[in-house]
Automatic annotation (TrEMBL):
Organism: Silvibacterium dinghuense
Residue numbers spanned by region Disordered: 1-36, 317-336
Gene Ontology molecular function: ATP binding; protein serine/threonine kinase activity
Keywords assigned: ATP-binding, Kinase, Nucleotide-binding, Serine/threonine-protein kinase, Transferase
Any Pfam family the entry gives: Pkinase
Identification of the protein by name: Serine/threonine protein kinase
Residue ranges annotated for the Protein kinase domain, each copy included: 56-313
Compositional bias (Polar residues): 9-21
Gene3D superfamilies for the chain: Phosphorylase Kinase, domain 1 (3.30.200.20), Transferase(Phosphotransferase) domain 1 (1.10.510.10)
Entries under CDD domains matching the protein: STKc_PknB_like (cd14014)
């Protein structure tokens, strides 16, 4: 789980003398964070500043996960913004974690040339800790965007699905599955592109590495095979994408339930019915039922088949525009 944070640096380098933090701070998930925890994270940012050297300025600690800390950096010469994903120090002596971290760098770099991916520029060494260096993507995560603006229209949803399917086709050509597609791992950038983030659970097919991650991803979007402890593949990504498509069209997670156990059981039992707004669109509902089949042998065979199915729904790639462009008048680019 990644917990989003803001340490109140206001764009400046953290300072040991800064003691103006509140007793508690809230993350977007509504959790409260103690003053001691905030201080610990600021100290971590200071430590990373000393390890990264004079070239980088640490602006903020953006997120804290079970394996890594996400920092926002600014290059001191050209002032460009970057993101550093640093392995947690307590995990640095575990060979399987190190191999998984480097596998993430490899997989993300292989697909990074695609316009809907985020490239990995470098793997730095910060005092023995591996750090992935990536560009900072200006924009808003899809879950936050839907919460603010409500569901996407059919045409906006198909544009979203077409972009992600294109990336999955590219990843599939390398034998890579993402394994953790969710609205929180997809960012809508300022030009209307949906960018897939966090390849931490990605896996390369036909690879004998015993340390490849098999763990389940985000509970609301975890496939039945992941819950059964089976290795994910591209059809796992199609299942997760199907759930995200339903959510962006309705504004609600399809697998929402009262407990993690109940969510797990809903995945394992399979989809009995889709929301009425989806069922009313019969061609789209048929496609989603195939993507969301409990057994992956009954799903689409891969992302290329999904892209063809999206074309058959009558969607034609259009000029890229953010779904909120009518109100924000933000930038756009052409796909032609």
């Amino acid at each position: 789980m990644i917990q989003m944070l803001n340490l109140g640096h206001s764009g400046s380098t953290p300072s040991q003398g800064s003691e103006s933090m509140p007793d508690q701070a809230a993350s977007p998930s509504g959790e409260r964070m103690s003053r001691e925890r905030m201080r610990e994270l600021r100290n971590l940012a200071l430590e990373m500043q000393s390890l990264l050297g004079a070239r980088w300025e640490v602006l903020d600690c953006l997120a804290l996960g079970g394996m890594a800390t996400i920092l926002q950096l600014r290059h001191r010469i050209h002032k460009g913004l970057f993101v550093a994903k640093a392995l947690r120090p307590e995990l640095a002596d575990r060979p399987e974690i190190l191999r998984s971290f480097h596998a993430e760098a490899r997989n993300a770099s292989l697909v990074g040339g695609h316009p809907n991916a985020v490239p990995v520029f470098d793997v730095l060494d910060a005092g023995g800790l591996p750090v992935l260096l990536m560009p900072f993507i200006e924009g808003e995560d899809l879950d936050a965007f839907i919460q603010r603006h409500g569901p996407l229209s059919r045409i906006q949803t198909l544009q979203f699905a077409t972009q992600i399917s294109s990336l999955l086709c590219h990843a599939e050509s390398y034998g890579i599955s993402h394994g953790d597609l969710s609205p929180g791992n997809i960012r809508l950038d300022q030009f209307g592109r949906y960018r897939v983030l966090d390849f931490g659970l990605s896996r390369m097919q036909n690879n004998d590495d015993p340390y490849q991650p098999f763990s389940a991803g985000t509970p609301l979007y975890t496939s039945p095979e992941q819950l059964r402890g089976e290795a994910p593949d591209i059809r796992t990504d199609l299942y997760e994408l199907g759930l995200v498509i339903v959510e962006v069209m309705t504004g609600k997670p399809l697998m929402q339930a009262d407990s993690l156990k109940a969510i797990r059981q809903r995945h394992l039992d399979g989809i009995s019915a889709l929301p009425a707004a989806i069922e009313a669109d019969a061609p789209l509902a048929r496609l989603l039922r195939r993507m969301l089949a409990r057994e992956r042998s009954e799903r689409l065979r891969g992302a290329a088949e999904l892209s063809r199915a999206l074309e058959q729904l009558g969607f034609q790639p259009q000029e890229l525009m953010r779904p909120d462009a009518a109100s924000t008048r933000r930038g756009r680019i052409s796909t032609r």
